[in-house]
Design a protein that fits this description.
heterodimer; A: alpha+beta; Glutaredoxin; 10 strands; 31% helix; B: alpha/beta; 6 helices; 6 strands; globular
Chain lengths: 202, 161
């Protein structure tokens, strides 16, 4: 009896530990989120009712990789928002650790670069945690199937952070193109090379 | 007196030169050079640290690796694998010089990370700092994808003996 109790306890602990590191994988349905945009308004995933999907990118102002990919992220939105896959950028970096990622700094970055897409602040970091985002930029291509969004691609934008023109494998574009053509995504998982998300000190 | 004076001056200069051994330069390499380290059959424990000049937590932990490198009680080989862009080698060299880094520094010129990152460790998300510690004699290895704390490296090495 004591043994059974112990086993139950161990099981419970394992469950708690594993649920803590839950993150979205390919095919998972994504929970709704609502975050503040740089224009002061709230944006929710569920606002995207008629789109075919969205390109969610965990990004920031300060990471050299984010800087290197900035124009490519803007180009992704220009190219795919009209085809039904707009970009939603989310900054989850803690502004105390990374002052360059404060809300005000986000507002000025979006202004300076004329962002055509929402740039949301994930101050509590719950959305980044729920997605299992670890790095910036970290891309999640979501496909809308009726009222749910399912994860179709997780990873990096392409295979050359330094030089966009030299990139051979454009993972995000390939994934979106495949979804637009009703085909399976050939490379649904890559590693998002970049800076670690600056988590709050707890 | 004058003779003694000049002798001490020379001695001081020698000590100065030895203590500030000419700082190294980064060697720009392809993945095969890193693979050689990962697959070495050397008797020395290998500590391979991935970092970049722009990565603040990486820069912060370098003194811990340098301290270990200078400690003759630990028979370990430290390799600092820099992930700055290869065309920024001058910046890396300036950093090495400024910090007077004595450990070997390789600047890895492999922009397509997804082609090699799993070969270092399958669990690696791609973030730095990251450190691989391996004992070629026993085949035991540890991979740490976070900033190292004081004394942590020594404990990890001990666990691989």
């Amino acid at each position: 009896m004591e043994k059974i109790k112990l086993l139950g306890l161990v099981g419970l602990i394992l469950l708690l530990v594993s649920s803590k590191s839950m993150k979205y994988e390919i095919g998972d349905a994504v929970g709704d989120f609502k975050l503040k945009n740089v224009d002061g308004k709230m944006v929710a995933l569920s606002d995207y009712k008629s789109e075919k999907g969205v390109i969610v990118i965990f990004d920031c102002n300060t990471c050299p990789y984010s800087k290197a990919y900035n124009d490519r992220i803007i180009a992704l939105d220009k190219k795919y928002s009209e085809q039904g896959f707009p970009v939603i950028a989310i900054n989850a970096n803690d502004a105390q650790i990374s002052p360059g990622d404060s809300y005000d700094e986000m507002v000025s970055r979006a202004k300076k670069k004329n962002y055509t897409f929402p740039y949301l602040i994930d101050e509590s970091q719950t959305v980044a945690r729920a997605f299992g985002a670890s790095n910036t930029p970290h891309v999640f291509v979501l496909q809308r199937i009726e009222n749910t969004f399912k994860v179709a691609y997780i990873g990096t934008i392409d295979d050359n952070s330094r030089d966009a023109s030299a990139a051979k494998k454009k993972y995000v574009e390939d994934a979106v193109e495949a979804l637009l053509n009703g085909k399976p995504v050939s490379t649904p998982n890559t590693k998002a090379i970049g800076c670690t998300i600056k988590w709050k000190n707890t | 007196m004058g003779k003694h004076h000049s002798f001490f001056m020379v001695l001081l200069m020698v000590i100065f030169c030895v203590s500030t051994t000419i700082a190294q330069q980064a060697t720009v390499v392809k993945f095969d050079a890193l693979a050689k380290i990962l697959n070495t059959n050397s008797s020395q424990i290998q500590v391979v640290n991935f970092w970049a000049t722009w990565c603040a937590p990486c820069v912060k932990e370098i003194p811990l690796l340098e301290k270990l490198n200078a400690n003759k009680d630990f028979n370990v080989k430290i390799t600092l694998v820099c992930l700055d862009y290869a065309d920024k080698v001058d910046k890396v060299d300036a950093f090495i010089h400024r910090k007077n880094i004595q450990s070997q520094v390789l600047l890895l010129d492999e922009i397509d990370y997804n082609s090699w990152i799993d070969k270092v460790d399958k669990t690696w998300s791609g973030a730095i700092p990251a450190t691989l510690i391996l004992n070629p004699k026993t085949g035991k290895r540890m991979f740490v994808e976070k900033e190292l704390k004081e004394g942590e490296l020594e404990n990890l090495i001990a666990s691989l003996q």
